[in-house]
Write a structure and sequence with these properties.
The structure is a single chain. The chain is mainly beta and about 525 residues long. The chain is about 15% helix and about 45% strand. It is built from 7 helices and 41 strands. The strands form 5 sheets. It has a 22-stranded mixed β-sheet that branches. Helix 2 links the parallel strand 3 (about 55-60) and strand 4. The longest helix has 14 residues, at about 1-15. It starts with a helix and ends with a strand. Residues about 1-25 have low confidence and may be disordered.
Length: about 525
Amino acid sequence: MKTLSRKLGLLIAICLPLLPVSNSNAQETVAIDNSIYDNLPFKMPEVEQPVFPDYQVNIRTFGAKSDGITLNTKAINHAIREVNAKGGGKVIIPQGLWLTGPIELLSNVNLYTEPNALVVFTGDFDAYPIIATSFEGMETRRCQSPISARNAENIAITGYGTFDGSGDNWRPVKKEKMTALQWDKLVASGGVLDNAKKVWYPTAGSLKGAMACKSFNNPEGIETDAEWEEIKPWLRPVMINIVKSKKVLLEGVTFKNSPSWCIHPLSCEHITLNNVKVFNPWYSQNGDALDLESCKNALITNCIFDAGDDAICIKSGKDESGRKRGEPCLNVIVKNNTVLHGHGGFVVGSEMSGGVKNVYVADCTFLGTDVGLRFKSTRGRGGIVEGIYIDNIYMINIPNEPLLFDLFYGGKGAGEEPEEALLDRMKAAVPPVTIKTPAFRDIHISNVYCKGAGRAMFFNGLPEMPIRNISVRNVVITDAESGAVISQADGVTLDDVTIKTLDESPALTVKDARNIKVDGKAFK
């Protein structure tokens, strides 16, 4: 009898999402283990979680069809508006294959995906209107994101389902990142090549948009609406764009194949990512997993990221635009995450002009990321990065540096840029310190273990603004191709640091730096 009761209970639990709408006054809450705030090296408030009324609708009720053919944009957004109008609750996407255009989240709505719910965003560019937005820290125009929210409060995407952004329809592809067979197949599928025959673009408009970009990926000299429409395929949207919103939760779901960055919260407060998975192809151009920009009070826990660019990235705007916004990324906990691939496992920058402060990163694993811990910026950014604490990081097979500070960042992934280009920037005349000078200071790294690396560490600050007050404690890096190099730094302490190289290079080289201490003694 007990066994039968358990089975009936399980059946009821599974069927609950398909029951008729409920108007109970009960509230659905999210439980976060408060021990995550124990022994933080800075003070921050607990991250507030969204709470939803026990009211729910199923997208099938609004005409959605799971056939992979029907475009369900209207049905899904109608369901969201209905729940929002009723005061909040859950919009259920049941098991099935659901084709859709852009989804717009509204306040007090939890978009819940049942097991085996697969949401695929259409690859039709016309489904995504061009809008004013922010990308790479600059105000610009891009296509509307597959999932977006603006000025919302109390929102969530939860459950067990998968969202596919159809990014292969949007992204350019570099020949060097594919096998000969893959490249030939891609070229034969259509699209156009650049003059050097080294980059494939999905359309001629995409190539024209790329040619209009002088710095990073925001086009210049595009004035009229007609000109913007012509390059529309280049205006790849981030997959999830959540702007100026509060009490945001992403939990349990999988996001994959984003057109550009995958998850981009901007100017949000009280945001949680828990048990989220992101999978982008390793060749995906600008395929960042998470870009947390100018957000305050955030948790990133128990996630798995596999990215074509940076994995867990902290940002706060670029150059004058970021400084004018003046919103630092503040009070962030990054804990118990795994990165399978990415340009950097945990990254700050390069767009950090609004500042970054009070970030705690702990208990993370990086498996073959190009760089492990990556701090990057360049002249012109301005902004201050300070109060960063990193502890218990485990890495293997890092082809470049497990720990990198690069204040001469040129927009390329580690190892992608010719060394001569970096040297040319470093030889430039030293400018005076101004509001445009970025500063990195008060960064503390401990208990880091890495087996297999390129250069063990590289600290490369600015002559006019050295990297300051950096502590590295209890770090073991083995099977490195070469030792650590510290340049343009002031006040670096290395305690209980072990570096074992595969060649005869010294474990530590210091040049143009001062106040460097190793195990309590001045390094000479």
